[in-house]
Structures are given as structure tokens and as C-alpha cells.
Give the backbone structure.
Amino acid sequence: MRASSNRLTTCDACRLRASKIFFAFAVGPFIAWGAGWGGSEKIGALTRTGGAQDSAQRLQNLIDLGATALCCTPSYALHLAEVAKKENINIRDSAVRSIVVAGEPGGSIPGTKARIEESWGAKLYDHTGATEIGAFGFTCLAQCGVHLNEGEFFAEVINPQTLEPADEGELVLTNLDRLGSPIIRYRTGDQVRLARDKCECARTFVRMDGGIIGRIDQMLIVRGVNIFPSAIEAIVRTFPQVTEFSVEVDRIAEMDELTIKAEVMDQNPKAVIDALAREAHRRLGLRVGVQLAAPETLPRFELKARRFTDKRKK
Ligand SMILES: [Zn+2]
């Protein structure tokens, strides 16, 4: 699509119609990706769901189909890559050139994004939205943050405590052209940081630097330090040896303790665990426990991942 215009050239339109877009999950009462599905059909792309299939079958299906684009959560893109490795399926040589992810911050976490792009040999694009208000953000071809679609939404960012305008804080949206579900000044609960400098793609829509940083109500306060789960994922994903992880926060002897459990594929997993603990300490500014988990014992996720547990809330 042309960067500076909403009009498609003949070449753009042909290219989009030739797309084969694979949605790697069942489409049922689950409403997410509804706009993506509708958009895929609207541009005339071949649109296929991977419903009622396991991950290996989905991989085979998307390869047989010659899918050029894959839509799923970042966690599931990584899980599919893990299954492909185990099943000896070469996804780097597949026709998939674009992966559009939603539902989690991973698409804008550099380490997660790099790992998905490397595994698939494809470009990753983050897509943000909420059932209540619609799909409001997209990564452009310049892959520089996530543009807020200001053609369809009036966007504000506020300090969630004082409600004063801010450049980093809670995203508040008013949709301008949505049938059936108009909402005025909807507090999304998403933490964002706005970037207003010019994007290489020439769009003037403001960008969310780092996409959606996290849900404001999921921010952890550990020994006085504010931590979004995405900050922990950003650290863990810099270790390619870590195949899956989970995080727990608990209060032990009146002290908050943050523990990362990590599955590690390496000849010397202890060294990886120690290095991860040091890096987490350095970047978060607090001591973090890191434990080794046995291979394939931590849960994998098809839809939104739930890797973070705050046991203090019980
Ligand atoms: Zn752009």
C-alpha cells in the first residue's frame, strides 16, 4: 500500500488480491481478529482459518496453501516455530513473508520480534485493538512503532492518576466512524508512550513507541519498583536459549520476590540461568530469582499468553 495515500495503485491491488492469509486459530464466538478477517476478504485475499487443527496440522496446512501471511499472537508464532523445528518443517522456506500479531505486547518487544522474524524468515507487524472500540493501531512498512489510526480514532493519552494529558500514560480513544459501537473517550487501560516525530513511511499519524507497553492494571509493583510484564519479556527474549518462560511474584517473609522460570535449550543451562539473573538484576534494578524448568513443562498458548502470576493478590 502506498505510504502517503489511501488510494491503491493497480499493482498494489493485484498484490493484495494475490495474498493468502492464514489465521492460525478457530474463528467462532471468539471475536478477536474479526476486523482482520473482514479486511482480508475485502482486499480479495484468499482467507483461511486453522480451526480444528493442532499446531503441526496448521503448519502443514499453511505450507500446502502457500500462505503469504500469518495472523496470530506473538506467543503462538513462536510456538509454531518450535513445533516446526521438532517436526522438521522448514518454515523459513515457506511462502510466509508477513506475520501480523495481536493480543500481546510481543510484536513490539525487540527480542520477541527478532526471534519471530528470524524463525520464519518473515517481517513482523504489530496490530493493536480492543473488542470494545475496534482495531486502532498498525505497524507500517517502516516498522517504527505502531501508528494510531487517527483517520478513524481521536486519540488522547492521560496520566491515569491525575487524568491530565500526558505523552506517556493511559490511551483514551474515541472512535469516529464505527457502526454499532460508538464510544466516546474510552479508557483503554493500555499504557502507551507517544512518538510524534516524522515516520519514514511519511504518514503523519502519531506512533506508539514500543506499541502497547502493557495493561495498566497488570503493572507489578515489586519492592517499590514498577514493572510491566513486557519489560521482563524484553529481557528474557534477549536469550535465544530460553524457549519458554513464566513469572511469579509472591510475598515471602514480608518481602516481594519475583521469580522467572525458564526452559533452556543449551549445553550449559546453568550458565544461561545465571546470566539471565544478572541481566534482569541490571535492567530492572532489583534481585530476581531465576529457576530452570524442565523442557516442555511450561504451558504454551494459542491465544493470549498468561505467563505472569501475582500470588500476592490471593
Ligand atoms: Zn510509518
